[in-house]
Amino acid sequence: MKKIIYVGYPSFPKGLAQVQRQLLIAKGLAEHNCKVLVLNRYGVHSQRETEIKAEGCFEGIDYKYCSGTPFRPTSFIRRNILKIKGLFIELKTLIKERRKKNANALIITCNNFKGILYYTVLAKILNYTSVVDQVEYWSAQDFGRNRKLDSYLNDRYYGYFSDKSIVISDFLMTKLNENQPGTAAIKIPAICDFSLFEQHKGYVNGSQYFLYCGSAAYFEVIRFVLDAYALIHSTTALVLVISGDLKWIGKVKRYIETSNIQQVTIKSNIPYSELVSLYKGSLALLIPLRPNLQDTARFPHKLGEYTASRRPIISSNIGEVKAYFKDGLNAFLCEDFEIEAYSQKMREAIEYPEKRELIASRSFDTGMKDFDYRKNSKELYQFIFEN
What we know:
Blueprint: E1 2-7, H1 17-30, E2 34-40, E3 55-58, E4 61-65, H2 76-99, E5 105-108, H3 113-126, E6 129-134, H4 148-161, E7 164-167, H5 170-179, E8 184-187, H6 194-198, E9 209-215, H7 219-230, E10 237-243, H8 246-259, E11 264-267, H9 272-281, E12 284-287, H10 293-297, H11 301-308, E13 313-316, H12 319-324, E14 332-334, H13 339-351, H14 353-370, H15 373-385
């Protein structure tokens, strides 16, 4: 039996898009008789999340917090002592697994270049096959001057050091081929477990509603959604499921109040089962993309979830959306990031129910064909071990 060790992102098994991607890739590989171990170097969770253990098995995937705890200590000294402990235990585990020839490859999901450099060099020393999973074009992120160099190095050279690469979008594949021609690479888009959605019924609250799900830090996009919604003048409600810092959520609430936008409900920190039910009960799901480098390069995780919900998507003809969706066929798409145009697509979803439901059905078919994690897992297994 082949074995893969996942390294680089200290949050598994609980987290947002990047952790969900880890889980689904790991589950897909496990279904092809491949054992997966996820190593978290140190803990990042709050003490309130008591259900997380330092070591265990989640949905068939083994994981371990090398620092000995999944929680982030409040003490600066203890926090850094545990980081050092985690570094050595992680290294010891990798050496032990390779010496016994238990593990064959490392999948590296890391948001900074120094982490990628560390793990890819370590993989060469220990004779692991290194596979970097790249999910963003980091130079397009607004991290400030302190991360500018790291982002450039990450985008430019991660493929140079890794044996193989996974990319999430056509844009990232193009960039990789430009920077390191001939690099072994595979595209795995935003993936989803469609079976989870089939188990849930739609949420019923007595009225139809649009739904937007995302981080409150994307305030520009949320404001765009609110402004477009304000123009439709409909009894259809709007539900915002937003995560992130309380100050950003507060900013969203203040904008709603000062703009006097009615029929808006904000939900945060809800169970995943409730989120799925909200998706499935919506009239349509909103995901406007901006015509910038960040949105062109990325592939939002929730796009796969939206298709699994069997509801129509209202988006922009940008980046990866353009690769899988066509306006009027399997999505409502705007050509421009313009409030009135987006509002018109929302009105279209309300006024033409037969068209809306046909688009919803075709969207689901697209997701099943391209975004179901099981459909991608066989090709990924062969890519890692047989190419």
